[in-house]
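Quick question about two entries, pasted in order.
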Amino acid sequence: MSAIKKFQVTFDCAEPERLARFWCEVLGYVVPSPPEGFATWEDFKRSQAPEERDSWFACVDPSGVGPRLFFQRVPEGKAVKNRVHLDVRIGTGLVGPERLAALEAECARLIPLGAVHLQTLYDGHDACIPMQDIEGNEFCID
């Protein structure tokens, strides 16, 4: 049996730092320290060639358990539905109205951050809320 490997999730996007900071708020992640030799991220940015500035950003789980999220600038915009998306696990272990209430509360927290509520799926027992982040990437509150 092979060992479990760490992985990161990479997002193609238009504004890496803005999207990374959005996901920090959603997941409780943090921005890591700037690269070695730089006191701040702004110092690091000033050291880069103009075409490289703001080309990537990352955020990490402060507990070290969750994957690193990496955001890289690409020239093209999002054109179709994601083939892979994140499920933000809010209602684990909850069912029925209690699950729905927990998901709706999280949805209400994320909308002021710029998330878009697409729909609420609820069958009386299970629930899921598909949403979009600030660049239109789909994710679910589940």
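Here is the second entry:
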Amino acid sequence: METVIYCILLVHILAGGVALLAAPVAMVVSKGGKAHRKWGKIYFWSMTGVFVTALVLSVFKWIPFLLMIAVFSYYWVVSGYRWLYLKKLGYGKAPGAPDWVALSVALVFNLVFTIWGIIQVANGSLGFYAYLAIGFGFGGLVIVSGNLRRFLNNKDKNAWLFEHIGSMLGSYIAAVTAFSSQVFSFMPGLLQWIWPSIVGAPVIAYTIYKYKKKINRNRKIEDLVTVKS
């Protein structure tokens, strides 16, 4: 069994390494172009590998925090990927079954994550990890509620682009956070977990603002990214 766990851990690390390298390439190449889609898919499937192996490791070793983090971060990835198939949402088309399933699972897990963190704080367990659990869980609920609002009442025909950008960059922040928490031991414990969000959140906000500003100047979305039907 120890050999199996070791192999799963090795796959987890390798998949995470590929994801960390693939995402920046997808970010810098022409948006929506062939290279962007290629590296985006590599990133998506690498993060899928990270998620599956994290799921197995967290269950076998019973690490609830790892389980919750795995679901939290992977919903970013799934959501970002699925928004590419929701370009017609602003025209009245309904989300598909995969979107509702992913949202429902994320809702349950993040709610449990938040409650579990509160219980740990009340019991004086886990130290700052308990507060991280509350923070991640609440953040996940914010993401889920935002997607739910879009699903039920979306009048912005360009929302799919902004949501895709936000979700994919958010998932990369989660990946960097996981890497930092395991490797950047020279940092104080809490800082290892929060610096990627401190740096990344403004980047997401600025990137989305930049695209919105260009579109508001009467530029078509097709002028900014290659849109594949």
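Reply: Residues 64-224 form one domain. The helical segments are 2-28, 34-60, 64-82, 97-123, 128-152, 159-183, 189-216, 221-224. Hope that helps.
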